[in-house]
Amino acid sequence: MATPMELEVNGKRYAVHYPPDTSLLYVLRDELGLTGSKYGCGEGQCGACTVLIGKAPRRSCQIPVSAAAAKPITTIEGLEKDGRLHPVQQAFLDAGAFQCAFCTSGMIMSSVGLLQSNPNPSQADIVQFLQGNICRCGTHPRVIEAIHHAAKTMQEHGR
Amino acid sequence: MSGRRGNFAVEAERYEFHAAPMHQFELGRRDFFKLLGAGIAVFAIAKDARAGQETAPGPKAFHNEELPKDISAWLHVGEDGTVTGFTGKAEIGQNIRTALAQTVADELRVPFESVRMVTADTALTPFDAGTFGSRTTPTITPQLRRVANAARDLLVAAAAKEWNIAPEGLVAADAKVTDPASGRSFRYAELARGKTLAQNLPAEDPVTPATQWTIAGKAIPKVDARAFVTGRHQYTPDLRPDGLLYGKILRPPSFGATLVSCDDTAAKAMPGVVVVRDGDFIGAAAPSAHEAQSALNAIHAQWKEVPQISDKEIFAYLKKNPAPDSGDRFRKQKGSVEEALAGAAHRVDATYTVAYIAHAPLEPRAAVAQWADGKLTVWTGTQRPFANRDELADIFRLPESSVRVIVPDTGSAYGGKHTSDAAIEAARLARTAGRPVKVVWTREEEFTWAYFRPAGVIEVKSGLANDGTLTAWDFHNYHSGMSAIETPYVVANQRTEYHQVSLILRSGSYRGLAATANHFARETHMDALSRTAQIDPLEFRIRNLSDPRMRAVLDAATKSFGWPRKKTQEGQGFGLACGYEKGSYVATCAEVAVDKASGAVRVVLLTEAFECGAIVNPDGLRNQVVGAMIQGLGGALFEAIEFENGRIQNPHFATYRVPRFRDVPEIEATLLDRKDIPSAGAGETPIMAVAPAIGNAIFDATKIRLNSLPLAPNGVRTS
């Protein structure tokens, strides 16, 4: 049965009507039109659907919408502020850390989550944290480079 | 729509040897200017629009078709100075949108930012057989360059006419035509104003040589990169036209199963649900994906299944079951192989096998279809928009002019998106629903109902003289394909043969096609031969090679690797491989570490040198080369499709292992820029030497010769 509930996404509140076990990803994409989060597998294996719930990166395809209602949600669309890219977005842009870019929003959201909990990650930290994000184009080295660069920028600017 | 599968022979996809029908471009001159506004347009009638779309070498029958007089590319300079280039190629992550815009800007002498490329839209762009075979750079780049060159001539002539002087001596630069004598100038935008001038391309215009490129050859970032890092770019699955329904297809339980009976009463009774049954096709569309899935769950279908070959018996089957019609066969021979084998000082014979693997593009197959006034528009991530259009027209019995296929920049393909399955499914549902329908395949559907890189068996017999000269080479490939089947080494007595086998699993193109399988067998075999001859593997190759471009990549890759290296740790091993295909050269060196206790293999370092003539965009090229190396590592070490009883046993990312961050070694890619050689494509060749280099490194570490891909899905048994 569809149950009315409220979600806070990128600082906006939305009333949604979906069965409580519907995945957050479907609600974001099909009801709210926030299509930046991607369906890559629907099994929590590829990371293309990663969003932040509170400060934690989560696979939105595996989160029932009812479980996401308690905390603020940030999607890729919510990172840019007043036309300025988030330092992680800027770092991906500067490093050319994408090819087809279908994994990119999930990569960026995971990276933002990583840098919030670990502002100065080592190479090994990055590899371990992003193990659940698949890039089929093989752009991994540039993603790692972008995260190192974003970490530096964020530390310099105290973000 | 009965006989749905029957209408699209899946085998037509095989090895990219499809001969598309000829098409005339339908957008008239008047429509063209209506669409883009006044300006100056130049069209290329390409004599080579379709030549060489296939991968060489191939059977003769595919090469001698009459070449069409087709428009292959065009360009428009608008009244506001905007330059628009048109090509039927699709952007699938290989960065052609950027590279082609660079070429146009370079030749037309305009800022890069003023050029936009319209790609892969059957209503707007010239016919194109498809984005495959590494053909965009070698065919479309020179055509756009000639078109841009002709447009520049037209603009110069227009300025000369305005000034009433001769065009000679006028200079085109910075989107302006300048008269150096007087210092006066016209902007291109001014010259285009009020004109509707369309011209065919003069036969052969001299174009700017690579040594004088100013915008091409530079590491210009991906066009519209900001849309990708902000999530704004809309891939096909992101499209949401008004009134959209979500479609789901009921799949058979196994390959080849036929429908016996079907009860869809309950599904049809669901509010808002449209159920379509047409032959063996059963699908549902609903206002949400959730409701569409619920409708499918409520359909009770019975299927008749047929016995199938399993992965356990596939290689024996391939050897014993030649295709009944083996006209599609490659055979080449010189000298006397039998005599040379008999007289060889050393003999090495071996059999190699290659498993089926999946492309697993992160964007699954998807399409949005919309009918209006008997016309069909489909947005879909495909490498072959025109072939998709033809298939749709054929199946729905429409003239081609009533079908439009548009390809949004797509979340990768790697050769896996040639077919129009999702497009047909969405269109069929949308026709009954009377509303637009979106079909996005699930990951499991993607792993099951797409197609695979074919499995294969390769048998090699070879002979050496005492001094390490290769004297005999007998190479037989069963089923996996003909790409790069011929040896680049100098051998007096050689026979190369491709043996066709009927399809077991639905198979088709994959990045590099069979070049990876053929290089795996050949370069592993060369390594084994070098060991028999007791010659360093690099020295052994150089001794048997004459091509200086191959030597150059070997030299660069081994230099960057530090070949020959001394082992410093237990379990360490070094290997190399090289090859040539589709106009470009590659050499790869690998360092592996094999854990003695567990047998786990870790690739520590890959160095690769790649040469594809003059480099159009070194940054995009590096991305493609490094990406191919990482993708190649998956097929080398652990990727394999498992199947039994017509079912895929590992149709998930949890069970079909692809390279992840932890698998990625240190990588060094060296790009050799040969400005004296026309640019070749680079999407495929960089993948093909990775597997043999890794396998040879594993041998160096363990003295165990692995002759099957994947090499070590569960590690190497060292005891």
Number of strands of chain B: 29
User: How confident is the prediction overall: mean pLDDT of chain A?
Assistant: 96
Q: Can you name the CATH architecture of the largest domain in chain A?
A: Roll
- Give the quaternary arrangement of the chains: heterodimer
CATH topology of the largest domain in chain A: Ubiquitin-like (UB roll)
Q: What is the helical fraction of chain B, as a range of percent?
A: 25-40%
Poorly predicted runs of chain A are none
List the defining traits of the structure above.
heterodimer; A: 159 residues; alpha+beta; Ubiquitin-like (UB roll); DNA polymerase, domain 1; 2 domains; 3-stranded antiparallel β-sheet; two-stranded antiparallel ribbon; 6 helices; 37% helix; globular; B: 719 residues; Aldehyde Oxidoreductase, domain 4; 3 domains; 7-stranded mixed β-sheet; 6-stranded mixed β-sheet; 18 helices; disordered N terminus
Task: Write a short abstract of this structure.
The complex is a heterodimer of chains A (159) and B (719). Chain A is of the alpha+beta class and 159 residues long.
Task: Characterise the protein shown here.
The complex is a heterodimer of chains A (159) and B (719). Chain A has six helices and five strands; from the N terminus they run ββαββαβαααα. Chain A has 159 residues and is α+β, with helices and mostly antiparallel strands. In chain A, the strands form two sheets. Chain A has a three-stranded antiparallel sheet with strand order 4-3-5, with helices on one face. In chain A, strands 1-2 form a two-stranded antiparallel sheet. In chain A, helix 3 packs across helix 6. Chain A has two domains: 75 residues, Beta-grasp domain (Ubiquitin-like (UB roll)); 70 residues, DNA polymerase, domain 1, CATH 1.10.150. By secondary structure, chain B is of the alpha+beta class. Chain B has three domains: 217 residues, Aldehyde Oxidoreductase, domain 4, CATH 3.30.365.10; 146 residues, Aldehyde Oxidoreductase, domain 4 (2-Layer Sandwich), CATH 3.30.365; 302 residues, 2-Layer Sandwich (Aldehyde Oxidoreductase, domain 4), CATH 3.30.365.10. The termini of chain B are far apart. Chain B is globular and about 80 Å long. The chains are: A alpha+beta (159), B alpha+beta (719).
